[in-house]
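Structure request: Twitching motility protein PilT, Acidithiobacillus thiooxidans ATCC 19377.
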Amino acid sequence: MLQIQTIFGVEMVSSALKIFELLGTKLVVQSADNFHKLRKKGITIRKTADVIIASFCIEHHLPLLFSDKDFKSFVEHLGLRNAIYI
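Returned structure:
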């Protein structure tokens, strides 16, 4: 059964959504490491948010559904899973 609760004036369906803390110290360090690994291969990721999102998904073994070409480098070189192929 779905439960709806209001948090800060926003109604949330609590049983349908899993909430993660996105940016902790460990993820900051991992994101920087992933960025540098790709730079060493001559690949520049244009958006910091893309590095953080991809690193989070890699760390938590979560597939990512994306159309942004920057994420392809994470798939090819760092083990990000593309949700389209799962």
